Amino acid sequence: MAKSAESHESVALKENPVQEETAKPTVVGWQGVRCVLPPDWNVTGFSMERESGYIRVDAPADSTLTVQIRWTDAGAPEVKTPYYVLAPKVRKLLRRPEPVQAKIDLKANLDKFLKEIAKQSKKSKETLEASSKPEREEGEDGKRHSINFNWTGNGKGQGKIWHCEVCNRVLVAQVVGMGKDQSAIPNVASRLFSSLEDHAQEGYELWALYDLQVEIPEGFRLESQKLMSGYLRLVFLRGAERIIVDRWGLANITLKKFSLADWFANHAEVNLKRLQKAENTTESGHETICYTGKLSLFAQLQAIRQAKFSLRGVPAQFEGGVWHCAESNKIYAIQIWRQTRAEKLWDEVLRRCVCH
Amino acid sequence: MRVPLKWKIYKTAGKYLPFLKIRPPEVDRNSAMTLRPARNSLLTWEEKESGKTILTVPVQEKKGRVARSMAKWMQVPAERYVELDEVGGFVWEICDGKHTVEQIVQLTSKEYKMNRREAEVSVTMFLQMLHERKYIGFYKRTANKSRKG
């Protein structure tokens, strides 16, 4: 039936639809940093580096509010010398204690940070006015020293700088806003600072962005990522062991053409035909199609090559699974290349993957 | 919609004299989200049972006698067909000049349970593509000026 432009029934919508009050808060997790923000905030920028990096999260629609989090490893020198790489390993081998580090000068770090903001403000012909509170101890056992600060220049910002003794990171987090959005800064800042963490919890690091939430064991490092509209992939490595987490959107359309098993078979990194198939149920009650089996010698060599010829933790076992989350209209898949002794890895990662 | 003379100059002079760097003013994100996409009235469309939408695009008649006779000899079809997937068809349906880009993003996000940001990126890219092919135009609703006297 051919339609014309006039015959279309319009969808009734308010001019500015009000956000649903029951919306879930946004959980963000990246490189060990985790925080909770108001609903519909999204990650818009990040770095891949673990030692020093940043993450930027923006408010939805036309709001100018942004959250910027930067971290640096306080123990890492600016130039990586062979001594820097080898010394900790030799100390570990000889069972020598790590040298006691000098106390981190948070005030100097903050001044350096504010200087950068002053430069930006100067470009837009604004003068920076900044104020900070005295340094204080916080967190469990007072292992975190922090300074709260505010600034007004090209916009307005409220932030916090801290040094965590547990992970030895210096972290700067701030909420920035312009114009009419400045009034919302304190609310977002209190929410951010009450939930912000900078290291793994119970040995697991949270990786959360764009409706994907998964906790990965601490030793795994992010190797690569693909963040596309409707498709996310995070690849983690620990030696030659590997975890791949995939998330596809628009599951209802995909599953009209393919069955879940066929879809996974097309996208899995190994041939699933020789693997043992089983059905399982996730924590959230979704039926999962799981595959388990020994990796072929070729697959093991491939894993070593992908791990840049690291012979540490050569995987012998593959475990993978896929499930459809109807509530969020998404397909989730996890693939794990593990050593034989890491038996609980699959169950733990699957249990800690939140889909809705 | 009447195109202002300034924009016409931008389009012609800017296109043929690129070194002058004459470009239409850049539209910021906020004002782009308030634009209302509307379908080209020359296009008709049909929704298939598979969920796909087929657009029928009339092919412009060739100018000049030689071009016309060549087209006739080569049997150039009078119309082209463009296939849109389910999401594309959904967006096409609501490009009626009544909904803003922001509203289309929200409706798409709600319908397919997409993340707001993902929906925005997909929808804006799709609308941009439709606009480049002249399948849709963008309207900006301006406040009506009431005449006195």
Characterise the protein shown here.
- The complex is a heterodimer of chains A (356) and B (149).
- Chain A is built from 7 helices and 21 strands.
- In chain A, strand 8 (136-138) and strand 9 (144-153) form a beta hairpin.
- Chain A is an alpha+beta fold.
- Residues 1-21 of chain A have low confidence and may be disordered.
- Chain A has 2 domains: 26-195, Protein Transport Mog1p, Chain A (3-Layer(aba) Sandwich); 219-354, 3-Layer(aba) Sandwich (Protein Transport Mog1p, Chain A).
- In chain A, 21% of the residues lie in helices and 39% in strands.
- In chain A, the strands form 4 sheets. In chain A, strands 4, 5, 6, 7, 8, 9, 10 and 11 form an 8-stranded antiparallel beta sheet that branches. In chain A, strands 14-15-16-20-19-18-17 form a 7-stranded antiparallel beta sheet, sandwiched between helices. In chain A, strands 12-13-21 form a 3-stranded antiparallel beta sheet.
- The longest helix of chain A has 18 residues, at 106-123.
- Chain B is α+β, with helices and mostly antiparallel strands.
- In chain B, the strands form 2 sheets. A 3-stranded antiparallel beta sheet of chain B has the order 2-3-4. Chain B has a two-stranded antiparallel sheet with strand order 1-5.
- Chain B has a single domain, classed as Outer Surface Protein A, domain 3 (Alpha-Beta Complex), CATH 3.90.930.60.
- In chain B, a hairpin with a 5-residue loop joins strand 2 (44-47) and strand 3 (53-58).
- Chain B is built from 6 helices and 5 strands, in the order H-H-E-E-E-H-E-H-H-H-E.
- Chain B has helices spanning 5-16, 29-33, 65-73, 86-93, 101-111, 116-132, and strands at 36-39, 44-47, 53-58, 79-84, 136-139.
- Classes of the chains: A alpha+beta (356), B alpha+beta (149).
- The A-B interface holds A 1-5, 8, 10-11, 13, 17, 40, 42, 44, 60-62, 210-211, 229-230, 249-250, 252-253, 256, 327-330 and B 29-30, 33, 38-39, 41, 44-47, 51, 56, 85-87, 93-94, 96, 98-99, 102-103, 106-107, 112-118, 121-122, 125.
- Strand 1 of chain A pairs antiparallel with strand 2 of chain B, so a sheet runs across the interface.
